[in-house]
Structure formats: structure tokens, C-alpha cells
Specification:
192 residues; alpha/beta; seven-stranded mixed β-sheet; 30% helix; 28% strand; globular
């Protein structure tokens, strides 16, 4: 948590000033539907893109400075989205459910124990048949830069009970520090 508080004192490398292209593609292909929760929303670019596309969007982040920036962006752009500061491991406290949950760079920051809690909480806020889309650093990305890498097997193990994995495909996680981006997995997962 302290790492993220410090990162948002300036502009963190993952804050690219626009939505991740993988999220744009999901929207353009009709995979993001209904109400949307953006977990670990940062300064809100993915959430605001989806709000502009007509979705009822809630962005959640644990860093107040990030949430304040997201709210400012929404005001400046004249977009309606709700941004709340909250704990990622207590999603049920939002008090509502969603048709779609997007995760752009959150899951790969969680410890093994936190992943278990997160998946349980995610199950509670996603409607049956709802979709979870996760963009996370891949184990194919060389070491030395960025967060912990995730294997396909770790994704499969984390979502083995109460979920259907529709696909895990190679993707790119964009950042301001690496023009080519970083190797990632884009997972499409359905709550049973």
C-alpha cells in the first residue's frame, strides 16, 4: 500500500493518460456489458472510457490521491462515473453487484493470500454469468522491471472453483516507461 501511496505523489508509469488498448478492444468487440466495476482504477482512464461508451461505471482504488484525480478527470470531461476509495480485499462493502469487472494491473500486485481473498470478494460483487477481465504482467516478461509475473497456471488455480475461464491470451500492458509495453496475459473469466 505504501508503494502505491508514494507512486501517486507523482505520476506512476502505469498512468498513461488514456485507456489501455486491451480494454478498448474488449469494449469495441462487445465483451464489456452492463454495469462495470474497475478494480484498482487508478486515475480512472479505463473507467472514464467505458463511461463515455455508455456504461454505468464505478472505479475503486485504495489510494485517495488517485481517486481525487479520477474525479477531477470526470468533471473536466463531463462524464458520469462514480469513484470511491476502498479496499480491494473488501469489495462487498461497495454494496452492489456488477455485470462486468475489469482489472488492469491489480491482480499481479497481490500476494498469494490476497489473491484468495480478492477472488472470493470478486465472486460476491459479480452477478452470476458476469465477466471478469484481467490484464496482468505475464511470466513471459523478463525479470527486472515492474511487478510480480503471473503464469497461466496461477490464473487457472486462482479461478478453479465457481468460475469458468473462457481464455487467457497474450497481450500488452502499456506504460509510460516502456514504449513497447510489457508482456501480459488478458484473461476472460465468467462467474458461475
Amino acid at each position: 500500500m505504501e508503494f502505491f501511496e508514494k507512486a501517486y505523489q507523482e505520476r506512476p508509469p502505469w498512468d498513461i493518460g488514456r485507456p489501455q488498448q486491451e480494454i478498448v478492444r474488449l469494449e469495441e468487440t462487445g465483451q464489456i456489458t452492463g454495469t462495470v466495476l474497475d478494480v484498482g482504477c487508478g486515475t480512472g482512464d479505463n473507467a472514464l472510457f467505458l463511461a463515455r461508451c455508455g456504461h454505468d461505471v464505478v472505479g475503486l482504488d485504495s489510494v485517495e490521491r488517485a481517486i481525487e484525480a479520477a474525479r477531477r478527470k470526470a468533471d473536466e470531461r463531463g462524464l458520469s462515473a462514480t469513484f470511491i476509495r476502498g479496499e480491494i480485499l473488501s469489495l462487498r462493502e461497495i454494496g452492489r453487484t456488477f455485470d462486468t469487472v475489469i482489472d488492469s494491473g491489480l491482480f499481479h500486485t497481490l500476494s498469494d493470500n490476497e489473491r484468495l481473498l480478492f477472488v472470493r470478494n470478486l465472486h460476491e460483487v459479480l452477478v452470476p454469468g458476469g465477466s471478469y477481465f484481467m490484464l496482468a504482467f505475464s511470466d513471459l516478461e523478463p525479470a527486472g522491471y515492474g511487478p510480480r509475473r503471473i503464469t497461466k497456471q496461477e490464473i487457472q488455480d486462482s479461478f478453479s472453483d465457481g468460475w469458468r475461464i473462457n481464455g487467457i491470451q497474450a497481450a500488452v500492458f502499456e506504460s509510460r516507461t516502456r514504449k513497447e509495453g510489457s508482456r501480459a496475459w488478458l484473461s476472460s473469466i465468467t462467474r458461475l
